[in-house]
Amino acid sequence: MPDPVRLVLPTGLPTGQAANDRIPVTWRQAAGSGGSRLPAVVLLHPLGEQRNRIMERFGGYLAARGISAAVMILPWHMERRPPGVKPLGAYLSLDPEIAVRSLEQALADVRVVVDWLEANPAVDSRRLGVVGVSLGAVLAHTAMGRDERLSAGVAILGGASLEDIARRSLLYRLVHPRPRSLTDQQLQRLWSVDPLAYAGRNRPRRVLMIQAARDDILPTRGARKLWEALDRPPLEWLDTNHFAPAAGADTIMARSLAHLEAAWGIRPHRRPPPVAAPTLKAGMLVGLDAPLALGLAWQAIPLAERSDHMALAHLSLGASTQGLFAAVGITLSRHVDIGVARRADGRTARPCLSIHLTL
User: Fold this and answer.
1) pTM: predicted TM-score of the whole model, two decimal places
2) Domain end: 263, 288, 323, which one?
3) Which domain holds residue 12?
4) Most buried one in 97, 162, 214, 269, CB count within 10 A?
5) Mean pLDDT for the chain?
6) At a CB cut-off of 8 Å and minimum separation 6, what does 197 contact?
7) Is residue 275 part of a domain?
8) Domains in the chain: how many in total?
9) pLDDT range class, residue 86, cuts 50, 70, 90
């Protein structure tokens, strides 16, 4: 496989900031056979990424398996970030116009990279795609709706309904404890870059969605709306939060590869591999041979699934200030379980209540 090549392309929507108006791209060309043109994808990283290790690894994984990858850096990130400017301020600004301009520049830059791929003699221009994580997944959905050249995609931990994200996202509330109400004009501007606005155009193409059932960063209701608007494409749910899927990156990359290969007819009948990520809960335990204990539990085996794709019943293993324990529980909500638990050195199982956060 050829060594990665570092490119710099001009932005598709200049901002007047020299550092931000250039698109650094790592090009990983897959090793082909007989000089044949190969499919290629654009990879888009999460908000606030500092070193782009996730997508660089993803790009290397795909290139080693026959799909070339262009790993681009989004506006206002890494070497595109001028002094004093932070990605959160650009994409989560209280002023929707600033956020929309940042998203518009990112989408324009995706088109620039797709233009470059289309002109590349080593790339099959009929098999172009996009893969994004978090913010990158939101952009991937919208980019596919705007650009018909993107015939396949994978959106990991994405979402839609930007108005709802501004109201309900835990990250947005942490950045802006007192958010302002939005005017009709501001809502229209947000809608202009919302994946839901382009779902009808995106529907004929092939997209895989991978979502976290306990996501507080990009609320799941937006992902569900988008899934319906896209006519229910392939969707994988992980019973965890927005960040834990990083621990299951190998399974997510394998599932993404299988989807792209099927979409482009490389291996259309391959059975998709499963995706997995750990469900770890940290919090307070009531009833474990003590009025109150601090504990960490791993939800080892889901026994049934709720309609919101969290485990309805589950077997967990954990450690607390009272010692090691095993528990069988029922999920009451994202942060509350009830069940019975037994300490490793105990003789009987006791009723137990868990109030926790998912790590």
Assistant:
1) 0.94
2) 263
3) 5-263
4) 162
5) 94
6) 142, 145, 191
7) no
8) 2
9) very high
Amino acid at site 219: P
Number of helical H runs and strand E runs in the chain: 10, 14
- What's at 282, amino acid-wise? A
Pairing of strands 206-212, 323-333: unpaired
Sequence-ordered alpha helix ranges (H) in the chain: 53-63, 87-91, 96-119, 135-146, 162-168, 170-175, 184-191, 199-202, 220-229, 249-263
Residue 154 and residue 108 share a domain: yes
Burial of 348 (0-12, 13-18, 19+ CB in 10 A): exposed
The one-letter amino acid code at 96 reads P
Distances 116 to 10, 27, 36, 52 between C-alpha atoms, Å = 11, 11, 18, 21
Are 100 and 187 within one domain?
yes
Q: How far apart are CA 288 and CA 340, in angstroms?
A: 9
In this structure, are 247 and 353 located in the same domain?
A: no
Amino acid at 265: G
How do residues 28-72 score in pLDDT, each as one tens digit? 999 875 678 999 999 999 999 999 999 999 999 999 999 999 999
The CA distance from 17 to 43, in Å, is 23
